[in-house]
Amino acid sequence: MLAVNPGTFDIEGPLAHYAAHGYARLGRVLAPEALEALRERADDLMLGRVSYPGFFWQMDAPSGLYADAPLGLGWQGPSLDYRKLEKLEKDARFLAWMQNPLFERLVRARIPGDVSLYRAILFHKGERGGSEVPWHQDGGKLWGLSRDPELQIWTALDDAPLDGGCLEVVPGSHRWGLATELGGVVPPDQVAARGAEGLGVALPVVAGEAVLLHNYVWHRSGRSLTGQRRRGFSACYLGEDSRCVRKKKTPRAFFPLFRNGPPDGPR
């Protein structure tokens, strides 16, 4: 699936940039045929040609406002207007991509011991532009973990130019810790206090590029104004020192991705 040699690809440069700035570009690492396979499977899922039990769906808000995205509706029939698909580890194509040997090298360089998956998720902005996602962090009590993960790898399945819903980050913001104990969306007063609007760096990408993201780095994305779709696939990697601590529901079991010994199933 890779467009590069996973054994000789330089990971030290990207990992150093990630440590310093909270993000790093890997360049175009997804091979063209694998890119087409993942695009095809994404549409198969949205249009109901392929389905898996326990899948998560979220439709986009017609208003394009993040706060208006409907919750708890699940599958709403075949549509290319889904905003988010989760549990992609159930699909062999997406699982193979998040377990590729280059990603394993990168992940093992940052996470000691056994590695599991916190979530595998497709973010989609349709032809109408999708939703604008505000500054946020991927951690805190919302995530229900004893220790927040730090590393996710975001892969572009479509071009995401400056006006096409590309990611934007505030470099170095991962070192600020959580903006709120709960995590998630950064409150407007903190956005203003940190001057985030003047510090944000856009990360336009072409299809097949991948980006390392620290869970605490402030990031957002605007609506796509190009009339073209923007699909981005994100896998968040979890160390063995993190456990689900939620009380109201049965604690989650996390899918094993990389094991030092033989896989022994979810934990």
Short description:
This protein is about 20% helix and about 25% strand.
Keywords for this entry:
disordered C terminus, 8-stranded antiparallel β-sheet, alpha+beta, 5-stranded antiparallel β-sheet, 267 residues, single chain, 13 strands
Commentary on this structure:
This protein is of the alpha+beta class and 267 residues long. The chain has six helices and 13 strands. The protein has helices at residues 12-21, 32-46, 92-98, 101-110, 188-194, 196-199, and strands at 23-28, 56-59, 82-86, 115-125, 133-137, 151-156, 167-169, 184-185, 201-203, 209-214, 219-221, 230-239, 255-258. The strands form two sheets. Strands 1, 2, 3, 4, 6, 10, 12 and 13 form an eight-stranded antiparallel β-sheet that branches. The radius of gyration is 18 Å and the shape is globular. Mean pLDDT is 94; it is low at 262-267.
Task: Please specify the SSE layout and strand pairing.
Layout: H1 12-21, E1 23-28, H2 32-46, E2 56-59, E3 82-86, H3 92-98, H4 101-110, E4 115-125, E5 133-137, E6 151-156, E7 167-169, E8 184-185, H5 188-194, H6 196-199, E9 201-203, E10 209-214, E11 219-221, E12 230-239, E13 255-258
Antiparallel strand pairs: 1-10, 2-3, 3-4, 4-12, 4-13, 5-8, 5-11, 6-10, 6-12, 7-9, 7-11
Query: How would you state the average pLDDT, rounded?
Result: 94
Strand count, sense and barrel status of the largest sheet are: 8 strands, antiparallel
Shape: globular
Which range does the strand content fall in? 25-35%
> What is the CA-CA span between the terminal residues?
28 Å
Q: Low-confidence stretches at least 5 residues in length (pLDDT < 50)?
A: 262-267
Total E-strand runs: 13
**Which secondary-structure class do the elements indicate?**
alpha+beta
Number of helical stretches of at least 4 residues: 6
Radius of gyration: 18 Å
H/E element string?
A: HEHEEHHEEEEEHHEEEEE
> What's the helical proportion of residues?
10-25%
